[in-house]
Design goal:
Blueprint lengths: L6 H26 L4 H7 L5 H15 L4 H21 L14 H6 L7 H9 L1
Bound molecules: zinc ion.
Zinc ion binds next to helix 6.
Length: 125
């Protein structure tokens, strides 16, 4: 178990995740209203750095046959789990192999719960 984050960094990361969570919830609401979110995601905001990983994950989930709603619901679960992990001090540890997830990966995918190797292995299944 590794907890390399200072309380200050933890707090900031929770804020990031909570913002993300709020946005996912908003997206889900808009989805219920029938908005064409994929078009919006891919057209505009996707160019912003902080959205690239997310849009890539979305494309991947859709390849696996997931609907946008399923993707967002899953994302919400991941974000919740990440917030819980920060609070419990287990954040940043791969749930699959127990190794530390590189900080750079967590910067890009703050809700990552697996290291790149385990993530890839899982996607190949
Ligand atoms: Zn791993």
């Amino acid at each position: 178990m590794q907890n390399l984050m200072s309380p200050k960094v933890s707090k900031k990361r929770i804020e990031t995740l909570e913002k993300l969570r709020a946005r996912i919830e908003r997206d889900l609401e808009r989805l219920e209203e029938g908005a064409d979110l994929v078009q919006q995601e891919l057209a505009g905001e996707a160019n912003r750095d902080d959205r690239i990983a997310e849009v890539a994950a979305l494309a991947q989930d859709q390849e696996l046959g997931m609907t946008l709603e399923e993707h967002l619901t899953l994302l919400l679960k991941r974000v919740d789990a990440a917030i819980r992990a920060i609070e419990e001090g287990t954040y940043g540890t791969c749930v699959s192999c127990g190794k530390a997830i590189p900080r750079e990966r967590l910067e890009v995918v703050p809700y990552a719960d697996k290291c790149v190797e385990c993530q890839r292995r899982e996607e190949k299944r």
